[in-house]
Design brief:
Blueprint (H helix, E strand, L loop, with lengths): L6 E9 L6 E9 L2 E8 L3 E8 L2 H9 L34 E5 L10 E2 L20 H15 L4 E5 L9 H9 L5 E6 L2 H5 L1 H8 L5 E6 L5 H8 L4 H13 L4 E7 L8 H10 L3 E8 L5 E2 L11 H11 L9 E2 L7 E9 L2 E4 L6 H6 L5 H5 L1 H10 L6 H14 L14 E7 L9 H4 L4 E4 L5 E3 H8 L6 H7 L1
Parallel strand pairs: 5-7, 5-17, 7-8, 8-9, 9-10, 10-11, 11-16
Antiparallel strand pairs: 1-2, 2-3, 3-4, 6-12, 13-14, 14-15, 14-16, 17-18
The structure holds iron/sulfur cluster (SF4) (2 copies).
């Protein structure tokens, strides 16, 4: 009797990447890899690589906790996931981080841009690129607060948010709300060329962080991703951010075979910068403008990025880079301490057996509720300056055989994060229900980033589908 050439692991739902109709999908293991296998009755079979590490993938399925709910939901369940965003009552996780896009305009026109932003007045879909009005933006921020009460992180985004003429009024408004941590998602051009702007931005510290595009040290890679050699701009932006010591996360958009060989070098560079608190690695999501990107050939999975970090950076071991319990399939994180120029992964401070004992499924872990809560807090995306320092100290205090370093502050924190967004190719409906990175839509909805770029952003592939249906 012939045997299947793969192991059928689980059943979920997805969509056809061509027509976005909902399909059943099998998760299968084959040759050490994990694939999503789906069948559309019009467009046939499709198979997409979703992980190259079966054990880590299985660990993610167990590294979960009951979801935290928002204070309210914004839509009803009518057509089924993913067509009811959101957040609909079927969503399993509140917003750990919400993007508020304040403009469609940008001072760059990157060949890769999920928002299809740019310098021209009209997009390729003939949509006019506009700055949102202050009134619209206040409404969006108020919606986030109404959903969350005290939102963990609100990320002011775009387009390029720093070119909005009312940028500082928007920050003032956001600062007047009970938001724990504000981030500015930027390409760094304004920060680089306008020192006074940077000085004024620094007045909003603490509780504000720059999320700085930083993809490569190579001119050719930057031209492919950003359409320009922006090395000098990045260098000057970092110089200003160091000068004013504004908390910064470097954000690396990764394309397989292009800049994935620079991961270790970027981590080393980040560790040398006073202002940098961490690096986020983000494989390209197949959405928006995708010039020169083939979603099947160039796809880069979270486990591949994790493997590359471990191969290229001597600072982190496999036990350091763990799934984030909010949304383990798509988020992974490592925490380290920067103390006196040394990098100390959190786990390096601990008796290894003690750390292994607090991992999921261990008896100790299950029995120690306080320890479990602290681990979840530490590895949640809630990391405002005050909360990180506090939870880190609490964690260290909880564990035996550890001398808690005194005087730890947010400046000693260094975190590596991998953020993978799903798209029409790798969408797993079981997983997207846990997503905790959301976008505030101007109409009042709060929508997972993954589905927003697929269906709900005006001009996106699925927009006619949901617009027609609603
Ligand atoms: S992704 Fe979440 S908000 Fe959107 S339809 Fe599914 S459960 Fe609802
Ligand atoms: S990716 Fe960012 S910097 Fe590039 S065009 Fe889009 S919004 Fe502008």
């Amino acid at each position: 009797m012939p045997t299947r050439p793969y192991l059928f692991y689980a059943l979920t739902n997805s969509v056809c990447s061509k027509c976005l109709a909902k399909t059943e999908a099998k998760i299968i293991f084959r040759d050490g890899n994990v694939y999503l296998m789906k069948h559309c009755s019009f467009h046939g079979r499709e198979e997409v690589l979703i992980a190259d590490d079966i054990e880590y993938y299985k660990q993610c399925q167990e590294f979960i906790k009951p979801g935290d709910m928002p204070r309210r939901f914004n839509t009803a369940i009518e057509r089924g996931c993913p067509y009811d965003c959101g957040l609909c009552p079927d969503h399993e996780q509140h917003s750990c981080l919400t993007l508020v896009e304040i403009t469609d305009r940008c001072n760059l026109s990157c060949p890769i841009c999920y928002a299809d932003s740019g310098t021209e007045e009209f997009s390729s879909k003939d949509l006019q690129r506009r700055h949102r009005s202050l009134e619209q933006i206040e409404h969006m921020i108020e919606n986030v607060v109404a959903n969350e009460g005290e939102p963990d992180i609100v990320q002011i985004s775009g387009g390029e948010p720093t070119i909005h003429p009312e940028f500082f009024q928007i920050l003032d408004f956001a600062k007047s709300k009970p938001i724990k941590h504000l981030m500015i998602n930027t390409n760094g051009m304004r920060i680089a060329i306008d020192r006074e702007f940077c000085d004024r931005l620094s007045q909003y510290m603490p509780g504000i962080e720059v999320y700085l595009q930083f993809d490569s040290f190579e001119a050719a890679a930057l031209k492919e991703l950003r359409g320009a050699d922006v090395r000098a701009i990045r260098e000057q932006a970092i110089a200003h951010l160091n000068e004013f010591n504004i908390s910064t996360t470097l954000v690396v958009t990764l394309k397989k075979g292009l800049n994935d060989g620079e991961i270790g070098k970027i981590i080393d560079y980040a560790l040398q910068q006073k202002c940098v608190r961490g690096v986020t690695f983000q494989p390209i999501q197949a959405a928006g403008r995708l010039e020169g990107f083939d979603p099947t050939r160039d796809r880069y999975t979270l486990t591949e990025v994790r493997r590359a970090i471990l191969q290229q950076s001597p600072h982190f071991q496999p036990k350091d880079l763990l799934p984030v319990p909010c949304h383990p399939d798509c988020l992974a994180m490592a925490y380290a301490l920067k103390i006196n120029g040394q990098v100390i992964p959190l786990t390096g401070l601990l008796d290894p057996t003690a750390f292994i004992n607090v991992m999921p499924n261990s008896v100790v872990y299950e029995q120690n509720e306080e320890l479990k809560q602290n681990i979840f807090k530490l590895f949640s995306t809630n990391h405002s300056p005050s909360s990180s320092a506090t939870t880190l100290k609490q964690l260290l205090c909880c564990l035996p055989l550890v001398n808690v370093p005194t005087g730890l502050t947010y400046e000693n924190i260094f975190r590596i994060m991998i953020v993978q967004f799903m798209d029409a190719f790798n969408l797993d409906v079981r997983s997207v229900k846990r997503s905790c990175i959301h976008i505030a839509d101007p109409d009042g909805r709060i929508i997972p980033f993954d589905t927003y770029n697929m269906f709900y952003r005006e001009g996106s592939q699925g927009y006619p589908l949901v617009a027609y249906r609603s």
